[in-house]
């Protein structure tokens, strides 16, 4: 191994990797580069000493790309795209290609560490696993005994979407939470979009939208608050192919994003006003009579009667003067509708239910949900929508017409709208627009995450093992400081003493970095588990080194832009003293007294997963997965999976619920909240971005675009990527740059009442005046001064707890 380099990859593989990087941005799985790779690959396979394992790249980029892991002498030398059963889903990006640079990075945590300096000082001593686990367990057991199980909390993020070693539902962290019965520290990230669309259409967090290949079936696609050219590059080729086939792509985005630049039309909407835009479009659609009345009547709650007295659906029990059963009260399918003949009946049983009207039945006044929606829509004539959104009346009418008439239409959305204080409202308006026009539940029609999030394989069984007490409490992170101050959380005693951080870089990724550090520092003891020394690990008292994804066996079942369940073979041994998460949590469980409940091996994990009803429905078993390495979870070959096909959705009623009868908030402090804002499509301005008074002091909106070169902070340790993505930049519009006398390369300070950051400027003509953006994912030491994540408010929506990252305004000055 004369070629052996310092970090364990050969010089040849490094050069090859670097060549691939010249195609920066291209999804290599779809470009001519792939062929080069595959040819090289065949030659590699002939080399007797190289073994190839199947693997999955599984950070939070919504990717889950299927990879070959090339191993020589027990070390990963390179990766390549692995053939999927459906070649439309073959893919890898430059991050996927640079895994060896992560695995053998100098930032890799090598052995357990104990803090010796102040928190954050980065001074450590090496300790043994036994000492580390002993100390953690001693503290843990002591706190639980003295202050109860909610005095210890587990904070998880989005580090690894593997089922076994990951943090999604059913993964080790959720199983451990349930088994140990401690508190869950909830990051409330990405919490508005799904909250809104799920209550309309019933997709749970990890259940599927239409399969990405279904985009090819749409005639119009509104790419609304999403930047797939960067943030779901795996999907981008479907969009481009659809466009080549004549599908109209319309990007609705305040800036000329990389995706907008590749679309047929760009609608520059004012930030945070999407709900008003959707309502204005609905207004015009209704005026023109383009709504889908049959769909509304048959597949939605539109004809259901809503009582004027309490906003609940009218049910037979109301007419009989008896109590509505608890079960019926949760099921809109038991609501009454008004037949053309004036007789009421349960939705679905009345031949020609009236969509509009207010009726008095047995002295009870009730209006159809559809009429209530029309009243809401009437508040947004196109002229008003134009005034709020900055989009001209003609353009609003034009987009509305294309969406409603050139069908089937899809709304491809991701988290660009979610990240505002008013995110769930705007997102709800998009979903309502889709229901109004019947653009859901059929090929080419969907509204939400146009990707296959997986079938929920194994979640329920694995997430709550037998005998598990379940988590003691759920604390939303933005309220932790308040809870420490008040000694209570939502009326309950609060006594958090210890927190464990696993699969998260909370310090860099939570809004209001200084607030995160402040509540962390009010905990007596902090434990971290990660592959690398992150800003979060730096503040922990004990840090545990975790094995890289390729160093542990696993399976990938959820949160992917493809419909496959993929097998991760253990390709190499964990580097240094690192351990797989499942081993760490098994030992911890043993030491904190819940070993009997939690205990599970990887093999048992996989076996149990395949015993779930979802797996049975899939018709696959573990042996097939191990043999084929990839099995389809949803849809069929050549026929893309469609969510809610035939207009049957996963809501309790199976209907599209454009009127939400029982809105349940995720913010713990919702008492007295005006539910009129939650039943129907609704909009009000964003918090900072929509506040004209604030913008006199802090005039510039600061966006955090998701970086092409990192998945959040992951890959910061891959030096090779840093050669092309050298430092964090703030991108400014030419107008603002001129106003402040700033040129590309100048140092700029951006600040507000929460913090400040200094970074280098770039002028970007794609940005409107008053908007700046900075790719996210940089650790504090990578900035010239301060940290970008100091600037974002933790103030989320009062009903739907979220992280409103984009709802941020700052002042800027040239340094
Ligand atoms: N300012 C601003 N901040 C944002 C956003 C924004 O737009 N603006 N976006 C937000 C969004 S949308 C999200 S989803 C969050 C993401 O926030 P995080 O989930 O915190 O994202 P990552 O930086 O990927 O951190 C995951 C950590 O898990 C570690 N990890 C990876 N694999 C494993 C494993 O197998 N085991 C263990 N134990 N650890 C592992 C990684 O090394 C990494 O340190 O960031 C949010 N932060
Ligand atoms: N390479 C890479 N991929 C990633 C990630 C990563 O860090 N790196 N992170 C992953 C995660 S967890 C997430 S949440 C997703 C995010 O995925 P996306 O939501 O697709 O990406 P974002 O960069 O957050 O921004 C989306 C778009 O919304 C636009 N936007 C901002 N404000 C508004 C608004 O008010 N209205 C409208 N209509 N548009 C607006 C922005 O200009 C941007 O073009 O990406 C995932 N994929
Ligand atoms: S980072 Fe995302 S797109 Fe790139 S290889 Fe990994 S999963 Fe695929
Ligand atoms: Mo996210």
From TrEMBL:
Q: What name has this protein been given in UniProt? A: Dehydrogenase
Q: Which family does it belong to?
A: Belongs to the prokaryotic molybdopterin-containing oxidoreductase family.
UniProt keyword terms in alphabetical order:
Iron, Iron-sulfur, Metal-binding, Oxidoreductase, Signal
Q: Which GO terms describe its molecular function?
A: iron-sulfur cluster binding; metal ion binding; molybdopterin cofactor binding; oxidoreductase activity
Tagged with keyword Iron-sulfur? yes
Q: Where is the 4Fe-4S Mo/W bis-MGD-type domain?
A: 50-107
What InterPro entries does this protein map onto? Asp_de-COase-like_dom_sf (IPR009010), MoPterin_dinucl-bd_dom (IPR006657), Mopterin_OxRdtase (IPR006656), Mopterin_OxRdtase_4Fe-4S_dom (IPR006963), Prok_Mopterin_Oxidored (IPR050612), TAT_signal (IPR006311)
Q: Which PROSITE patterns match?
A: 4FE4S_MOW_BIS_MGD, PROKAR_LIPOPROTEIN, TAT
């Amino acid at each position: 191994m004369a070629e052996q380099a310092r970090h364990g990859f050969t010089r040849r593989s490094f050069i090859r990797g670097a060549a691939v990087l010249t195609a920066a941005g291209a999804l290599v799985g779809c470009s001519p580069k792939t062929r080069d790779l595959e040819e090289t690959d065949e030659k590699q396979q002939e080399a007797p000493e190289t073994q190839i394992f199947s693997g999955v790249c599984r950070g939070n980029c919504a990717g889950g790309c299927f990879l070959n892991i090339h191993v020589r002498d027990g070390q990963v030398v390179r990766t390549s795209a692995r053939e999927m059963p459906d070649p439309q889903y073959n893919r890898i990006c430059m991050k996927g290609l640079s895994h060896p640079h992560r695995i053998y990075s100098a930032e890799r945590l090598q052995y357990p560490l104990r803090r010796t300096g102040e928190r954050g000082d980065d001074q450590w001593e090496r300790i043994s696993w036994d000492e580390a686990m002993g100390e953690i367990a001693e503290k843990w057991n002591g706190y639980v005994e003295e202050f109860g199980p909610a005095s210890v909390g587990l904070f998880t993020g989005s580090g690894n979407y593997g089922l076994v070693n990951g943090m999604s539902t059913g993964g080790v962290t959720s199983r451990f939470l349930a088994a140990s019965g401690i508190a869950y520290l909830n990051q409330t990230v990405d919490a508005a979009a799904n909250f809104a669309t799920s209550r309309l259409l019933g997709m749970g967090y990890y259940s599927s939208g239409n399969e990405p290949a279904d985009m090819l079936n749409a005639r119009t696609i509104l790419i609304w608050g999403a930047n797939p050219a960067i943030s779901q590059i795996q999907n981008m080729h479907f969009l481009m192919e659809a466009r080549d086939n004549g599908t109209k792509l319309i990007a609705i985005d305040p800036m000329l994003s990389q995706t907008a630049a590749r679309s047929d039309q760009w609608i520059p909407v004012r930030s945070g006003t999407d709900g008003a835009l959707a309502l204005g479009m609905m207004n015009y659609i209704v005026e023109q009579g383009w709504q889908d009345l049959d769909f509304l009547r048959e597949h939605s709650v539109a004809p259901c009667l809503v009582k004027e007295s309490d906003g609940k659906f009218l049910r037979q029990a109301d007419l009989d003067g008896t109590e509505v059963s608890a079960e019926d009260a949760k099921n809109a399918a038991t609501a009454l509708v008004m037949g053309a003949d004036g007789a009421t009946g349960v939705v679905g049983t009345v031949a020609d239910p009236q969509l509009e009207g207010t009726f008095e039945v047995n002295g009870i006044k009730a209006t159809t949900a559809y009429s209530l929606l029309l009243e809401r829509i009437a508040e947004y004539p196109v002229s008003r929508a134009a005034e709020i959104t900055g989009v001209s009346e003609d353009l609003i009418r034009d987009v509305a017409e294309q969406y409603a008439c050139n069908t089937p239409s899809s709304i491809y959305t991701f988290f660009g709208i979610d990240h505002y204080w008013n995110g769930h409202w705007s997102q709800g308006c998009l979903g309502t627009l889709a229901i109004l026009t019947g653009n859901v539940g059929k090929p080419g029609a969907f509204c939400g995450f146009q990707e296959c999030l997986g079938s929920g394989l194994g979640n329920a069984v694995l997430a709550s093992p037998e005998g598990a007490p379940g988590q003691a409490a759920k604390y939303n992170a933005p309220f932790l400081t308040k809870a420490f101050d008040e000694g209570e959380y939502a009326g309950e005693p609060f006594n958090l003493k210890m927190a464990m951080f696993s699969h998260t870089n909370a310090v860099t990724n939570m809004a209001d970095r200084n607030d995160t550090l402040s509540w962390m520092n009010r905990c007596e003891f902090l434990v971290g588990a990660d592959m690398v020394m992150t800003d979060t690990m730096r503040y922990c008292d004990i840090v545990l080194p975790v094995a890289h994804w390729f160093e542990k066996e696993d399976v990938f079942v959820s949160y992917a832009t493809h419909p496959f369940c993929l097998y991760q073979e253990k390709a190499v041994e964990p580097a240094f003293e690192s351990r797989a998460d499942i081993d760490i949590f098994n030992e911890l469980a043993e030491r904190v007294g819940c070993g009997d409940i939690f205990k599970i091996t990887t093999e048992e994990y996989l076996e149990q997963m395949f015993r779930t009803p979802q797996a049975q429905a899939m018709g696959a078993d573990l042996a097939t997965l191990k043999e084929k390495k990839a099995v389809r979870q949803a849809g069929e070959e050549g026929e893309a999976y469609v969510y809610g096909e035939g207009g049957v959705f996963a809501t309790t009623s199976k209907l599209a619920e454009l009127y939400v009868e029982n809105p349940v908030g995720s913010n713990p402090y919702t008492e007295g909240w005006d539910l009129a804002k939650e039943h129907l499509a609704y909009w009000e301005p964003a918090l900072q971005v929509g506040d004209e008074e604030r913008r006199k002091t802090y005039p510039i909106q600061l966006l955090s675009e998701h970086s092409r070169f990192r998945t959040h902070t992951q890959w910061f340790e891959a030096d090779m990527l840093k050669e092309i993505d050298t430092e964090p930049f703030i991108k400014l519009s030419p107008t603002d740059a001129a106003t402040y006398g700033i040129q590309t390369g100048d140092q700029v300070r951006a600040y507000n009442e929460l913090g400040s950051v200094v970074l280098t400027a770039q002028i970007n003509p794609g940005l409107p005046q008053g908007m700046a953006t900075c790719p996210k994912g940089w650790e504090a030491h990578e900035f010239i001064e301060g940290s970008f994540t100091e600037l974002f408010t933790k103030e989320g929506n009062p009903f739907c707890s979220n992280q409103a990252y984009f709802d941020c305004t700052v002042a800027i000055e040239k340094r």
